[in-house]
Amino acid sequence: MRLCRRCQQRTSRIYFTHRKPDDGRYGLVDVVCPWVVLKRRPWVRLILPCLEYEGSYRDYITELGNEERYPFPLDFDHADFPAMLAKLEQFRMGVDLPQGFVPSTTYWLVDQQEMIGVANLRHYLNARIERAGGHIGLGVRPRERGKGLGATLLRLTLEQAWARSIQPVHVHCYKHNQASARMILANGGVLDSEIEDGGETIQRYIISPSR
Ligand SMILES: CC(C)(COP(=O)(O)OP(=O)(O)OC[C@H]1O[C@@H](n2cnc3c(N)ncnc32)[C@H](O)[C@@H]1OP(=O)(O)O)[C@@H](O)C(=O)NCCC(=O)NCCS
């Protein structure tokens, strides 16, 4: 665990990387925690999905291209945007859920008029997601990655989990997904176990509220 250079908190760390103008390579330029990222971008906040961000949502999906989408609600058909919002609300309320799904709340991380990331918080675990999936799935739009926003999104989603008395929180990721694993570690994740699934290793982390 390192100290944030700005606020000296020990809880988490972010390597803040920028493209260097001289040689075009990426370099480590700063070490700050998610709270400092929020201070630098004071407009970043977590919201429930709403009509206001329809244009930005469509841009986000285009930006993802053929990439696998995380979390799963990004796969919902959004041609009829209000219908998609209604479906997200049904998931939140636990109404007409597909077989095997538990109620879950989708949050959008937004910065003024732009959507930056999406998180999905499962309200409880069933056997399937306890094994692989966990309580939280999340992703950041490609052009905003590597700036500490994934760790910030996870931190804000964990606050929602604590508010619902969901604890400890299970967060899973593929072992090869280093950005995801480090984002979880930066939020106090403790590796609980690893399992094999479809030829891939899944790491299962547990996060408890800090005292
Ligand atoms: C995983 C994801 C959400 C991380 O978001 P992000 O904004 O890029 O991450 P951050 O900038 O907050 O960085 C978090 C940690 O990952 C590290 N990291 C970021 N990009 C990385 C990369 N490409 N390779 C290795 N580590 C990386 C950071 O250095 C930081 O680690 P540190 O705290 O030890 O320094 C983002 O990469 C993403 O959306 N990926 C696609 C969807 C996905 O894989 N979701 C997770 C499914 S479990």
Provide a brief overview of the structure.
28% of the residues lie in helices and 29% in strands. With 211 residues, it is α+β, with helices and mostly antiparallel strands.
Keywords, please?
29% strand, transferase, GNAT family N-acetyltransferase, binds coenzyme A, Aminopeptidase, Acyl_CoA_acyltransferase, GNAT_dom, three-stranded antiparallel beta sheet, alpha+beta, 6 helices, four-stranded antiparallel beta sheet, acyltransferase activity, transferring groups other than amino-acyl groups, 211 residues
What sort of overall outline do the alpha carbons produce when their principal axes are compared? globular
**CATH homologous superfamily classification:** Gcn5-related N-acetyltransferase (GNAT)
Report strand %.
Answer: 25-35%
**How many separate structural domains?**
1
* CATH first level: Alpha Beta
Work out the helicity level.
25-40%
Small molecules bound in the structure, each named once: coenzyme A
Q: What's the β-strand tally?
A: 9
As laid out across the biggest beta sheet, the strand order is 3-4-5-6
Mean pLDDT: 87
Domain N-acetyltransferase: 60-211
Organism: Aliidiomarina halalkaliphila
Protein name: GNAT family N-acetyltransferase
Keywords: Transferase
Describe it for me?
The chain is of the alpha+beta class and 211 residues long. The chain has a single domain (14-207), classed as Gcn5-related N-acetyltransferase (GNAT) (Aminopeptidase, 3-Layer(aba) Sandwich). The chain is built from six helices and nine strands, in the order ββαβααββαβαβαββ. It has helices spanning 34-40, 54-64, 81-93, 127-131, 149-163, 178-186; strands at 14-19, 26-32, 44-47, 104-111, 114-122, 136-140, 169-174, 190-197, 200-207. The strands form three sheets. A four-stranded antiparallel beta sheet has the order 3-4-5-6, with helices on both faces. Strands 7-9-8 form a three-stranded antiparallel beta sheet, covered by helices on one side. Strand 8 and strand 9 form a beta hairpin. It is globular. The two termini are 16 Å apart. The structure holds coenzyme A (COA). Coenzyme A (COA) binds next to strand 1, strand 6, helix 5 and helix 6.
